[in-house]
Amino acid sequence: MNNNLTKLYFPFLTAKITIESMTKGSITKNLILFAIPLFFGQLLQQLYNVVDSVVVGNVLGKEALAAVSTTGSLIFLMVGFINGLFMGSSVIIGKRYGAGDERGVSIAAHTGITFAIIMGIVMTVWGYFFTPVLLSWMGTPSDVMPNSVLYFKIYFLGGLGNIMYSACCGVFQAMGDSRHPLYYLAVSTVINTVLDIYFVKYTPLGIAGAALATIIAQFISAILAFVKLTRVDGPHRIFIRQLRMDGPTIKKELMMGFPTGIQNSVIAIGNVVVQSNINAFGAAAMAGCGSYFKLEGFVFLPITCMCMALTTFVSQNLGAGESDRVKKGNVIGCIIAVGCAELIGVIVYLFAPTLLRMFSSEAEVLAIGATQARTESLFFCLLSLSHCLAGIYRGAGKTTVPMIVMLSSWCLLRITYITIIVRIIPVVNVIFWAYPLTWSVSTIIFIIYYFKGHWLKIGSN
Q: Burial, 223: exposed, middle or buried (Cβ in 10 Å; 0-12, 13-18, 19+)?
């Protein structure tokens, strides 16, 4: 592409952004400045994800909204595992950058991107062909199944774009650059919104149009991010001819990322089990709970972003040998995240019906969604602290700890509770209490491990 045309039409591809090391300067300022672009990026990501539900729910109705909602757990099952694997790449890049190892950063970045291309193709093929089987395992109702299968198959045709965007963003963020991913996501969100409305409302594509809009936008964001990585000034610059996997590096990345990938997948399997129990209560419950989960992801953004900032902060500072700075940053980050979480929880509790109305205006759907919101929202502080501590341990390379804790509490305990209690008290409200219960357990375990201090041991990367 002509460079002058690139500057004219896509200035964010050529704009220079100074990479900020998080090993120096004000801790609070570093965390907040890194988290702000992440917040807006995640906000756009949630808008991106929510658009399908808003457009489909309001144009095509309750059954179509239920079809989109029921695919959420399965999408996280697929994407969560692969994105978890990339966590190892991001942590290694961050540590090597903090230690001043530029060649090591380059090797890790090329290895991670190459791996993303391979896994993106694998996810596309696997997700497309196994869709009907997965949805049937979930007990998806027959009236919802055709639309769910159609949406899910088309969605996974964009698997390569989804994975490539996540991998490229992981490289930027590991280097302390949280702004470029924001730019690319902004472009793709606008495209997704416009195409969603056009395809669903003004063409006969229906729910297939919503999925098609999503994959087009995913590929655009992935292309923009990848092109920028081939033009940046820094050790993380990607050279297409150097795209290959370095044996020792991919081994370290997988050893570090595999526990997070397994954690995401098993938690997703737990969520699939939860979704299966919700499905048993019918389309209204599916739509109501699906709407709440969309809302939760939307309002929980500030907390998620601070957790991501903590991971980068910890990895860079441990790479630089700054353990005291790590401890101070952890306290500051957790206080900010937990405070924001409880404030947001109160707002959600008070205004749940109004907030949920953007997804559906049907009284039964709103009632179920509002009940779930008011059951869980005041416990957001526990969810926030669990995420922050898990982010700290991942940044330190201790990815096995969050995996074990979250598998035992967010998966095994949650499934056991729901399986037993729903059969004793067969009402959907029982399912909602599984979340505060398991958040409490994980938080207690994470706090105990934190004060043991084992996570501070610095290993070689």
A: middle
